[in-house]
Amino acid sequence: MSTPAELAAAARAWPFQEAQRLLARLGGTVPAKGYVLFETGYGPSGLPHIGTFGEVARTTMVRHAFRLLTDDRIPTRLVCFSDDMDGLRKVPENVPNREMMQTHIGKPLTRVPDPFSNAEISFGAANNARLRAFLDAFGFDYSFMSATDAYTSGRFDATLLRMLETYDQVKNVILPTLGPDRRATYSPFLPICPRTGRVLQVPTVERNTSRGTIVYIDPETKEKVELPVTGGHVKCQWKADWALRWTALDVDYEMAGKDLTDSVRLSTQICRVLGGTAPEGFIYELFLDDKGEKISKSRGNGLTIEEWLTYATPESLSLYMFQAPRKAKRLYFDVIPKAVDEYLGFLAKYRAEDAAAKMENPVWHIHSGEPPHEDVPISFGILLNLASVCNTEDKAVLWGFISRYVPGAVPANHPILDRLVGYALAYYRDFVKPEKKFRAPSDLERAAFADLVAALETLPAEADAEAIQNEIYAVGKRHAFANLRDWFGAHYEVLFGQSQGPRMGSFVALYGIANFIGLIRAGLDGALAKGQG
After folding, report:
1. Which residues, 6 or more positions from 235, have their beta carbon under 8 angstroms from its beta carbon?
2. Of the candidates 249, 253, 246, 199, the residue with the CA atom closest to the CA atom of residue 227
3. pTM for the complete prediction?
4. In this structure, are residues 316 and 423 in contact, taking their beta carbons and an 8 Å threshold?
């Protein structure tokens, strides 16, 4: 029988492929620092969003695959690094007290007051706390690192001095990518102005490697100012900053979005100039909003972490991050139901799979090899439609149907299902209910529904989903719909007030044949279309 490490070596799931590449790069040995360092970056210029979570979740999946691949004989660490020393470039659109924040443009994020509170805490620190609270709630195993702390504590000092020594080489990596005006003023070092506290985009006019300083001209006073490059007196331009971090921390693995492809290439070159080795990387595609545009922290045009978790399980969010990371995907409310049901489908398959297949199953990666054991007999889509037909926001109403459909099922022995009921009610309340629009049946549909009522009345009350589905299908065939999709579409539009719906046999088995017959009659006599259903 193959060992877990042997199975991992043959696994095709992308986290294992990444882990195998990383192990090959290391030559199968422990790095000199004593561990393999996985890193994720976070820019706290705006509120944390799902893309930030996705990077941590995906990196965690690779880290777990690596640990299995190596039988845990090579120690690993995951660092979540916050670029909180960046200057505030613009005020985010989704924060209060925007006028106050405008007065702090240009200052490091850890020197900008938090607009959400009256406490003496910075915007950067507050956003860091929000991110950490969420990552902690998910149970991620990580260490948090702040750029402000790394610069001011001296942790970056040796590499900053090395960048000062190789100043011209570093510049020469970047200059070909800049326009004429920017080339004339570019410096990898951004001074933190002692007078205003702002991060300055100014040229370096003198360098002194023996003193470890740079000189710039204050843009307002026109005086020369000399600052050490160490101790938090400067920060580096973005691409130089990334290379600085990789070199100083000896990062082994870091993902990046497709929009940072050129930054990865240039930072890799700078890393070599500094004497470091750039990490193994993975370029993932971007998330898009409902209009197909890239989601942005400052614009707030995508789903927030909190919004997804209002309507669906954390596991469904992790699945969305796992699937097709190199494919651009819409990240909007309408993707949630499908993600939930796909997660349930993978979970249902897991227990019957062999060891090799389990490692290819997304739930193995979502739960670090230990998925929960619970049969979930009802899909999220069915629960949404049950809430819609019942027109309720009361969990007890849905559980009344569930307990009849699954004898003995109660919230206590079906905790995952109980959570799904709560999510379904919330999703129905905010997205389905406001958009419901019933229509009257056509003559063809009216005749078919009348026929369906007669057919269902011949079935026993306990008929299963397959028997009910067969009757619905047979009625549609008898009434010669041009496309049977139109017949099922009539169910959704006439009876549910929606354009889409569940597999009808499964829904009717849950809702009850007698109840469903009553729903058809309400649709036929116009009660639903008049909003009386």
Report:
1. 85, 86, 108, 147, 151, 189, 190, 192, 199, 241
2. 199
3. 0.89
4. no
Give the pair of three-digit tokens for residue 370: 């230990």
Q: Which tokens belong to 70?
A: 């190596």
**CA angle (481, 483, 487) in 5-degree steps:** 60
Q: Quick one: pLDDT at residue 533?
A: 42
CA distance between the termini of the chain: 60
> Taking the mean position of all CA atoms in its chain, how far away is CA 84?
21
Is residue 255 within a helix (H) or strand (E), and if so which, with residue range? Answer: strand 253-257
Classify residue 435 by its DSSP letter: G
Confidence class for position 301, pLDDT limits 50, 70, 90 = low
Cross-strand bridge partners of residue 432 = none
Check if the beta carbon of residue 374 is closer than 8 Å to that of residue 382: no
Helices 504-511 and 395-405 pack at an angle, to 10 degrees, of 100
Please, which contacts does 396-402 make with residues 24 or more away whose CB atoms are closer than 8 Å? 398/424, 398/425, 401/510, 401/511, 401/512, 402/378, 402/510
d(CA 78, CA 151): 20
The pLDDT of residue 532 is 44
Extract long-range pairs of 358-363: CB within 8 Å, 24+ residues apart.
359/7, 359/8, 359/11, 359/13, 359/16, 360/11, 360/12, 360/13, 362/13, 362/319, 362/322, 362/323, 363/315, 363/319
Element (H, E) at 236: strand 234-236
Joined tokens for residue 150: 């790394």
